[in-house]
Amino acid sequence: NKKFDLIVDRAALTHNNEKSIIECISKCHKQLVSGGKFIGVDWFSTEYSEYKKGIEAEDVWTKINFREGNFSNVGRVHFSDKGHLLDVFQNFKMLRMFHKVFSEELPNNYWELATWNFVSEKV
User: Fold this and answer.
1) How far are the Cα atoms of 48, 51, 59, 74, 111 from residue 27, in angstroms, in the given order?
2) SS3 label, residue 31
3) What is the pLDDT of residue 44?
4) Is the pTM of this model over 0.85?
5) Nearest Cα residue to 118 out of 84, 85, 87
6) Model confidence at 15, in pLDDT bands (50, 70, 90)?
7) Distance between CA atoms of 115 and 46, rounded to whole angstroms?
8) Is 55 in contact with 24 (CB distance < 8 Å)?
9) β-strands 77-78, 62-64: how paired?
10) Residue 44 in contact with residue 107, Cβ under 8 Å?
């Protein structure tokens, strides 16, 4: 029954499908005090090279069966673009969003790691 001022997720929810993530965010919203913050760290971006390697699961954002790379044998991985994150957090005010992109230069295999960091507030 306690309310929280802050909830932080570092890429844990990103291993669920869209429906489960939205349900969890809704529960987080209920448990936050008014003005409470939800901080997301390293949520996977659709610009991450790995996004193209998986097979679509329950929704277009969630991939499974990565045969190689960082998510081989990991299971479910959820990716987002800016619009999708804003939709998922529609009951929050998005205060800050950072899109981080790291490009591998040597060897140049055109691999990129892309993730989101954001701060949202319960309104």
Assistant:
1) 28, 27, 21, 25, 35
2) helix
3) 98
4) yes
5) 85
6) very high
7) 8
8) no
9) antiparallel
10) no
| Matching residue, tokens 């869209």 | 18
pLDDT, one tens digit per residue, over 20-79 is 999 999 999 999 999 999 999 999 999 999 999 999 999 999 999 999 889 999 999 999
Q: What is the mean pLDDT of residues 78-104?
A: 97
Rounded to whole angstroms, the Cα distance separating 104 from 71 reads: 17
Q: Are 122 and 29 contacting, i.e. CB atoms less than 8 angstroms apart? A: yes
Start-to-end CA distance of the chain, whole Å, equals 19
Q: Tell me the β-bridge partners of 43.
A: 116
Sequential DSSP letters for 16-68: S-HHHHHHHHHHHHHHEEEEEEEEEEEEEBTTSGGGGTSEE-SSTTEEE---S
What rounded mean pLDDT belongs to the chain?
96
> Would you give the distance in Å from CA 96 to the centre of its chain?
14
Q: How far is CA 102 from the centre of its chain?
A: 17
